[in-house]
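agent> Task received from the user: take the single chain below, predict its 3D structure, and emit structure tokens. No templates, no multimer pairing.
agent> Plan: (1) validate residues, (2) run structure prediction, (3) serialize to tokens, (4) report one or two observations.
agent> Step 1 OK, no nonstandard residues flagged.
tool_call: predict_structure(input=
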Amino acid sequence: MNKNSIIETEIKGLKASKIFTSDSTETLLITLEKDKLFPTHTSPRSTFLVVLKGKIDFHIENKSITLTEHQTYTFEKNIEHYVTAHEDAKFLIIR
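)
tool_result: status=success, residues=95
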């Protein structure tokens, strides 16, 4: 499986589900339990992240950005990043 290809994946407190796809866009719903890790990966497209619930740290380019409910963050494609959860969290990845 290509590390940038998600249909539905569930691993130890992390669940990623593709909820929408078209020729130019896909939307993923990520559920991450408290103190769990969404491991280091890259995105094949520029991405818009929207936190729906909870509190996460988004780690990218030697920075850690804390995001809470209704906060957003955008980042460019092919940059390694990972996410940790301070509490149970849900967020959208639109790319």
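agent> Step 4: summary for the user.
The chain has one domain: 8-94.
agent> Done.
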